[in-house]
Amino acid sequence: MKNVLVTGGAGFIGSNFIRYILDGDKVDFVLNLDLLTYAGNLENLKSVESDPRYCFVKGDIRDRDLLRSLFEKYNFDTVIHFAAESHVDRSIVDPGIFLSTNVQGTQALLDTAKAHWKLKPDDKYSREYRAGVRYLQVSTDEVYGALEKTGMFTEETPLAPNSPYSASKASADLLVRAYYQTYGLPINITRCSNNYGPYQFPEKLIPLMIHNAQQDKPLPVYGDGMQIRDWLHVKDHCTAIYTVLEKGIPGEVYNIGGNNEKANLEIVRIILTELNKPESLITYVKDRPGHDRRYAIDNTKITSQLGWKPLYSFEAGIHETVAWYLNHLEWVNRITSGAYQSYYHEMYGNS
Ligand code: NAD
Ligand code: TYD
After folding, report:
1. Is the pLDDT reported for residue 340 higher than 70?
2. From the CB of residue 119, how many other CB atoms can be counted at a distance below 10 Å?
3. Over 50: is that where the pLDDT of 216 sits?
4. Between the N and C ends of the chain, which has fewer C-beta atoms within 10 Å?
């Protein structure tokens, strides 16, 4: 891994990943291509912006001319594709941008990598180019749909997305797979469970609840609050992606998760305890349409075949995360002013 293109590096996971790979000598050069939507914020990368190995370009992954010129100029050997519209609630209000960014954006990137790496419909010539280059699609467990009370998602679980967001991510995954099968593009797909940690936009459950509780505002719990998510610290996600880049077999999918299932209500209560705030702040609101009941990742493949394991316990991770948000109140206030509008505001007005 020498010259790396990271897309969406100004977002939550991408910015954590860029800081992680610039720590030590894992890469020679990283270009961060990000459109800086409401979710992208260069403040997340202040600590690396003067690193000579780092470069930022503001641009759209759907801009094929821009992609071509960047590949020509920097000769990337590795692409790590984070850029996406990432919030389920927003996808319910406005699915179009999810299809455009997540599906067409992925296709533009795949086409550009394929052309630059001179891959043709699978033949001996293209196979020779597999060595030394890699395209990694950062995907989500949500492509598998919802689980009942038992069972876990394995890499063989059929795709059955339920939200416009997860449908767009599943569609992108299928395109990535097709470019491997047809053109020999050396890909991996990683499907991770819900992340938490520093720099997450406060529209997602954990930072939103911290933000509201800290201001004594109501905590909107959808439905009965007994939906289950499988939480992983973002830094563990970053080490997993790096492990797949280093050791993953081309063409393979790897699930990423830390065996940490929690009901939403349990998460909210943990946050209230951390902040010493009353349970009376919990407010049950109308459920999300098509709300997936339970996610749980079987991480056997990545742990047993690639030797990855998560380092954070949830207790330590959430404690550190709450402290981080309390120490970054100005960051939170800055990014939630401006164009940000909550899903509930969009769907139900201010009531
Ligand atoms: P995020 O919303 O915080 O960041 C997305 C970034 O993509 C932003 O910086 C945004 O400006 C950029 N972007 C959006 N459209 C773009 C475009 N057209 N061109 C260039 N840049 C664009 O998202 P995140 O939570 O960091 O998620 C990153 C990736 O990880 C996504 O692909 C998401 O599906 C996946 N993922 C997220 C989670 C999670 O819990 N957050 C879990 C599993 C997988
Ligand atoms: P979210 O952070 O949006 O992630 P995802 O939908 O991708 O899993 O939501 C996590 C869970 O928390 C999900 O079950 C929806 C629920 N939720 C609430 O109950 N209230 C909220 O205000 C939000 C944002 C989410």
Report:
1. no
2. 24
3. yes
4. C
Ligand index nearest the alpha carbon of residue 43: 1
Burial of 224 (0-12, 13-18, 19+ CB in 10 A): exposed
C-alpha dist (Å) from residue 107 to 99, 158, 239: 11, 22, 26
Task: Write out pLDDT tens, residues 267-317.
Answer: 999 999 999 999 999 999 999 999 999 999 999 999 999 999 999 999 999
Q: Catalytic residue at 142? A: yes
| pTM of the predicted protein model | 0.96
Q: Is residue 131 scored above 80 in pLDDT?
A: no
Which ligand ends up closest to the CA of 60?
1
Ligand 2 pocket test, candidate residues 142, 219, 222, most atoms within 8 A of CB: 222
Q: Is the CB of 205 under 6 A from ligand 1?
A: no
At 145, list the tokens. Answer: 């749909």
Cβ-count burial 140-167 (b if 16+ within 10 Å, e if not): bbbbbbbbeeeebbeeebebebbbbbbb
DSSP β-bridge partners for residue 307: none
Token pair 């590096």: residue: 9
Instruction: Look up 165 and say whether it is catalytic.
Output: yes
What atom in ligand 2 is closest to the CA of residue 87?
3
Question: Where would I find the H helices in the chain?
Answer: 12-22, 64-74, 88-93, 96-99, 105-116, 124-128, 164-183, 205-214, 234-247, 264-275, 300-306, 314-327, 329-336, 343-348
Token code pair at residue 160: 């059955």
What pLDDT is stored for residue 322 in this prediction? 98
Sequence-ordered list of residues with C-beta below 8 angstroms from that of 22, at least 6 positions apart, any chain:
30, 48, 51, 53, 54
Identity at 199, one-letter amino acid code: Y
Q: Is the pLDDT of residue 128 over 60?
A: no
Residue with tokens 């569609």, as numbered in its chain = 171
For ligand 1, the distance from its centroid to the CA atom of residue 236, given in whole angstroms, is 17
Q: Are 166 and 142 in contact (CB under 8 A)?
A: yes
50 CB-near residues (< 8 Å, 6+ apart)? none
pLDDT in tens, 188-211: 999 999 999 999 999 999 999 999
Alpha carbon separation from 111 to 73, 116, 188 (Å, rounded): 17, 9, 16
